[in-house]
Design brief:
With about 700 residues, this protein is mainly alpha-helical. It has two domains: about 200 residues, no CATH class; about 350 residues, no CATH class. It is about 55% helix and about 5% strand. It is built from 31 helices and ten strands. Strand 9 and strand 10 form a beta hairpin.
Length: about 700
């Protein structure tokens, strides 16, 4: 375990010291094209090795083919920004602006098309900072904060879409736009519709405001992203301060005064700029008032803010902020209901969901096939991880990779098998079922489980502590497959909602249990800390035993621990929404843009036919080591609104999908989801899906009639 502890404790230092090396490695001809020595079209400070600078210059020159992109780069250069590569967990890039640093960082793991779009996005943030975006959150009142940070991100995404369209018009190549669309499909398609018929840069310039407005508005159509921003930039800060000691609270009030205010018109005037620095909402400055959901607040955040200001008034005497009192609750969905293509990712990829820098909660989690084996070898080499001793695996499971990779995989396997009875059974079941283990670089993911190929992949860029927890998570998915969890989209929609959430919540519960067992066996809490760092809400829901508690006692508590962790998964509103968007609403949405023959094939691949009750699901999924069910005393737990509610947009998407299937195939509509409750926010009221969706459709129709 000493190797694991050292790897965990050295993580941050290793990432900082090796950043340039990794950027160089991932920009080398063995992985990327040979980049020329062309000078950058815009004289901006490029940081890194010679290889990195050549690749960065290529990205700059690609973006400079867009008039909007070139203007953004010139502005960033004028403001003193540098551009470099940096390994970022869960992000394509970031823009840092404070009193000492002005830097745009790009994640070298991604291809050039994606990074060109990201450069446009982050350079737009640099322009926003120059126009008055604060360096720190919570400088303004709650209503302003909600609108301002959403506007900043929606504008940056709309601008990246425009740059992709301009590059396509200038060069005839659509790579940049297509790669942007891969992770921001709704925004890309909205911008493309607004640009219909624009074949030249002159045409696009004439339609610039419409394109930017369409992309901006479409950003709000991704409920998971909107929820995640609210949770990360507002709720988390307030909730953490509410639990802090008074001394720290007083310091927080000084650095986060929340004493300024901007109305919606001032926000769009400040940040929603065309290349000529005009406001593309000049003819619609009341966009936030017109679409109240753009500035809506969840009931969870509202209650947390109420408590925050109550505590602040008690601590300092400052009057509470009433700016958010009249805001709508999240979930008032009106307009912009578009059925856009969606790219499905590996259903069992563990999304890092790191909201630092550019937040990409819905980003496709993909492998980098040409680089994966090479990178797995590099990230498991002594240069990064130190020397792993040669051990015999405690479990006879197939390990794939280079000699160093197999040594590292053996250490991970043995750390689990020697110290965790639960983990040992997971590994043994995976081995008995023919699974193999290997390393695979997967942006935004710690690991994945490939059911068809019977392979568990671990991302070698992460430290051993995180990968041990991930190994437990992914082998739990392998065990779920063995226990009879059906393939995606083979059960009716109500079952899919309950089943897919249950499989992920259970895998996280298994990961938590294994981490606690390792902690009890070794008195080393590095694996538990790694799990808690990646899933803090779940970790907080678990009753963590004293480190002195014996392994046997921790194993005895397995049922209660996993039950608490399972329930804790549903406290992560952004994660729940992201799963609903990515694995249910997204794939169902995409069918509307397919030709008829492809739709028919999709209906065959997604039959939505069988049904499982809550009891059948938990008995299949929520297993203890002895084959029992840790929800045996609460078999209907998945019928609670907290665990089976859906968003109104999901209801409407399903209605559209099954009516289309009926019209094309004659098959009866799946109506199982009509009895599910709906959530209008990330914590508040539950209503019947049918009633809520009906109201939303009516509101959308009235809104369109009034325009």
């Amino acid at each position: 375990m000493s190797v694991l502890s050292r790897a965990f404790e050295k993580k941050e230092k290793s990432e900082q010291n090796n950043g340039s090396f990794l950027g160089t490695l991932l920009s080398m001809p063995v992985l990327r094209p040979v980049y020329s020595d062309d000078a950058p079209a815009v004289a901006i400070d490029l940081r890194g090795s010679g290889v990195e600078k050549r690749r960065l210059a290529h990205l700059v020159n690609t973006l400079a083919q867009s008039p909007t992109g070139k203007a953004l780069l010139k502005n960033a250069a004028k403001e003193g920004y540098s551009v470099g590569f940096e390994m970022l967990s869960g992000a394509f890039g970031s823009c840092t602006c404070d009193e000492s640093t002005k830097r745009i960082a790009l994640n070298p793991l991604y291809g050039d098309g994606k990074l060109t779009a990201t450069l446009a996005h982050e350079a737009r943030h640099a322009q926003q900072y120059a126009n008055g975006l604060p360096y720190e959150f919570l400088q303004y009142d709650i209503a302003t904060e909600l609108k301002m940070w959403r506007a900043a991100e929606a504008d940056a995404e709309a601008t990246a879409a425009l740059c992709g369209l301009e590059i396509r018009a200038a060069t005839g190549k659509s790579t940049v736009f297509d790669k942007f669309a891969g992770s921001s499909m709704k925004i890309a398609r909205a911008a493309e519709r607004a640009a219909a018929g624009c074949d030249t840069l002159v045409d696009l310039n004439g339609r610039q405001s419409e394109i930017l407005k369409s992309g901006f508005n479409a950003w709000f159509g991704n409920a998971a992203i909107v929820d995640a921003y609210e949770e990360s930039y507002l709720y988390d800060h307030l909730a953490k301060n509410n639990e802090a000691p008074k001394e720290k609270r007083l310091d927080f009030y000084k650095t986060h005064p929340m004493n300024k205010s901007l109305d919606g018109a001032e926000i769009v005037e400040m940040f929603c700029k065309t290349a000529e620095n005009g406001c593309y909402f000049a003819d619609e400055p009341d966009v936030f008032e017109k679409h109240s959901r753009f500035g809506a607040i969840s009931n969870t955040s509202r209650r947390t803010a109420d408590r925050f200001f109550e505590i602040r008034q008690s601590d300092t005497g400052a009057a509470p902020d009433n700016s958010y009192a009249g805001l709508d609750s999240n979930g008032t969905l009106t307009g912009y209901d578009d059925y856009t293509p969606y790219t499905q990712s590996d259903p069992f990829a563990v999304d890092t969901m790191n909201f630092a820098g550019s937040l990409n909660a819905g980003v496709k989690s993909v492998a980098v096939p040409d680089e994966a084996s090479f990178l797995g070898h590099v990230f498991s080499s002594p240069f990064f991880r130190g020397s792993y001793k040669t051990e015999k695996p405690e479990i006879d499971i197939r390990l794939k990779g280079s000699k160093n990779e197999k040594k590292r995989l053996t250490v991970l396997v043995n750390a689990v098998a020697k110290n965790s009875p639960t983990g040992r059974k997971l590994l043994q079941d995976a081995a008995d079922n023919g699974y193999s283990l290997d390393f695979l670089v997967q942006p935004n993911s710690y690991g994945s489980c490939n059911r068809e190929k019977k392979r568990v992949h671990l991302n070698p860029t992460f430290d051993d502590g995180k990968l041990i927890a991930t190994l437990a998570h992914e082998t739990r998915h392998a065990q779920q497959h063995r226990r009879g969890v059906p393939e995606f989209y083979t059960t009716d929609m109500a079952t899919e909602v309950r089943l897919r959430r249950a499989t992920e919540a259970d895998a996280q519960a298994a990961s938590a249990q294994v981490a606690l067992e390792i902690r009890a066996a070794t008195k080393d809490d590095s694996v538990w800390r790694a799990f808690a760092q990646t899933a803090p809400v779940i970790a907080a829901a678990v009753m963590k035993p004293s480190i002195e508690k014996s392994l046997g006692m921790v194993v005895e508590d397995q049922a209660s621990t996993m039950r608490d962790a399972f329930k804790g998964w549903f406290d992560q509103s952004a994660i729940v929404s992201a799963y609903e968007e990515r694995y249910l609403r997204g794939p169902m949405t995409s069918i509307g843009f397919l030709p008829v023959w492809a739709r028919l094939n999709t209906f065959k691949d997604m039959p939505f036919s069988d049904h499982m009750t809550s009891q059948q699901i938990v008995e299949t999924v929520c297993a203890t080591n002895n084959g029992g069910c840790y929800f045996k005393n609460d078999p209907n737990v998945l019928n609670t609104s907290r665990m089976c509610s859906i968003q109104p947009e999901t209801y409407r998407t399903a209605e559209h999908f099954f009516k289309m299937r009926r019209d094309l195939t004659g098959r009866a509509e799946d109506r199982s989801f009509r009895g599910l409750p709906t959530r209008g926010d990330n914590g508040g009221g539950v209503r019947s899906a049918r009633t809520d969706a009906g109201k939303s459709v009516l509101q959308a129709w009235l809104s369109n009639r009034q325009r």
